[in-house]
């Protein structure tokens, strides 16, 4: 880092070491959240686990804990510097400026993650995200009659070619996205043909699947799995096709691509006492069935930028499974990985060894929480064991020490120690002759 970036980095580090109160985020995005919260949406939204939920919750309270976890300070500083850099890199063209500004408004975390990618692929993934966001906004808007909503969902893949098309629905930032959707279409039409075809195909399939379940209730596990394929698995299909269109990756199989999307699926439930926790555990166990496919998918990636783009959300997904498994607090408020741990994952994920290590450690955390009285205990243990075996067979495990619990160190005590160190250093420097 040089010049302004170096100054900004030092300024942010000093701010974290002396004042851990941060801004309160406002990301209302619900795609693949690493924070689990109750909501009325009866079904998981599309786009899998793209969002890392860096913008949610009581940030001031969380960052007070940074002092008790010194290993998380530097990654958090890097994360803030990167977030600030994104704001200065918004393209000047109106349609691209709208696309990237809107992306930051609906998901600052995803806007950060896609910076791993090269310009052309980053533009394609940005538009892919916004198109699916818009599609999801139509599906979610309960004020739209079914006879109006179903045709829009089925024809949405055609609307993305029309610069003049827009449909007013949704609320807040999502309403703005829909009102000015023509700018997204304008950006879409500047993408390469391979990118356009991939986005159109997935939009068509997802729109048709959503339309099907507007007219049909989810009444069985098979129904649920089918719906999840439409709104999550297809995201994996789409990303694989975009990577292939960029010319840097072989086209992954549909099976592996589907697992990549499904493993990032949201976990949201309404409270229902002990049965709710058992249902939650069942869903986590179901998600774990895709983990080995995800590891295989990532191990085949060639481009380092694409690898990081895929690996970071996948690690966050299994981390979220670990924190949510057998956790009744999921039904009492927001449950999420702390920002410091998220920042560490982003900073430390560079190779498959890092991925294997994270999957092994988070799987071990799930294993430690298995209740033998849970109806799925044996199946959960079987799937965790399979993940751990795969990771161990890589012979590349490291020791990260990822954990989800509160620090054993008292933040106030750490602050006192730091203050004393500062005083001692001040006295030492005061006695050094000029």
UniProtKB/TrEMBL annotation:
GO BP annotations, alphabetical order: farnesyl diphosphate metabolic process
InterPro entries per the UniProt record, alphabetical: Isoprenoid_synthase_dom_sf, Squ/phyt_synthse, Squalene/phytoene_synthase_CS, Trans_IPPS_euk-type, Trans_IPPS_HH
Alphabetized GO MF terms: squalene synthase [NAD(P)H] activity
Region listing for Disordered, in residue ranges: 1-66
Regions that span the bilayer: 305-328, 409-432
Chain intervals with Basic and acidic residues compositional bias: 1-27
GO annotations of cellular component type: endoplasmic reticulum membrane; plastoglobule
Swiss-Prot/TrEMBL keywords: Membrane, Transferase, Transmembrane, Transmembrane helix
Pfam short name (any one): SQS_PSY
Family per record: Belongs to the phytoene/squalene synthase family.
Name of the protein in question: Uncharacterized protein
């Amino acid at each position: 880092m040089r010049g302004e970036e170096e100054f900004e980095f030092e300024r942010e580090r000093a701010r974290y070491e002396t004042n851990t109160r941060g801004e309160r985020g406002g990301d209302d995005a619900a795609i693949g959240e690493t924070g689990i919260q109750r909501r009325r949406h009866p079904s998981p939204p599309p786009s899998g686990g793209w969002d890392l939920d860096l913008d949610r919750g009581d940030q001031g309270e969380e960052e007070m804990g940074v002092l008790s976890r010194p290993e998380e300070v530097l990654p958090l500083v890097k994360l803030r510097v990167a977030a600030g850099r994104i704001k200065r890199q918004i393209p000047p063209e109106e349609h691209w400026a709208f696309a990237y500004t809107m992306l930051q408004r609906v998901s600052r975390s995803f806007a950060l993650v896609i910076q791993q990618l090269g310009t052309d692929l980053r533009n394609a993934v940005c538009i892919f995200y916004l198109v699916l966001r818009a599609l999801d906004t139509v599906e979610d808007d309960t004020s739209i009659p079914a006879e109006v909503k179903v045709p829009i969902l089925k024809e949405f893949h055609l609307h993305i070619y029309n610069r003049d098309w827009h449909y007013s629905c949704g609320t807040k930032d999502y309403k703005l996205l829909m009102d000015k959707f023509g700018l997204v279409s304008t950006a879409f039409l500047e993408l390469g043909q391979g990118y356009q075809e991939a986005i159109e195909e997935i939009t068509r399939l997802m729109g048709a699947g959503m339309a099907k379940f507007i007219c049909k209730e989810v009444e069985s596990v098979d129904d649920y799995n089918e719906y999840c394929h439409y709104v999550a698995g297809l995201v994996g299909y789409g990303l694989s096709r975009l990577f292939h269109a960029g010319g840097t990756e072989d086209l992954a199989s549909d099976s592996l691509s589907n697992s990549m999307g499904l493993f990032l699926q949201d976990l949201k439930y309404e409270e229902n006492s002990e049965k709710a926790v058992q249902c939650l555990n069942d869903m986590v166990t179901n998600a774990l069935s895709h983990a080995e496919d995800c590891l295989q998918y990532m191990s085949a990636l060639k481009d380092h930028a694409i690898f990081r783009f895929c690996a970071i959300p996948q690690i966050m997904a299994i981390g979220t499974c670990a924190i949510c498994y057998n956790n009744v607090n999921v039904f009492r408020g927001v449950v999420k990985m702390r920002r410091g741990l998220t920042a560490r994952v982003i900073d430390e994920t560079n190779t498959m060894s890092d991925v294997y290590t994270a999957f092994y450690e988070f799987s071990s955390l799930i294993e430690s929480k298995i209740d033998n009285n849970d109806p799925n205990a044996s199946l959960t243990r079987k799937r965790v064991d399979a993940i751990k075996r795969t990771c161990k067979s890589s012979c590349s495990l490291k020791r990260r020490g990822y954990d989800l619990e509160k620090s054993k160190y008292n933040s106030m005590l750490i602050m006192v120690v730091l203050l004393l160190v500062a005083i001692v250093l001040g006295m030492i420097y005061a006695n050094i002759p000029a």
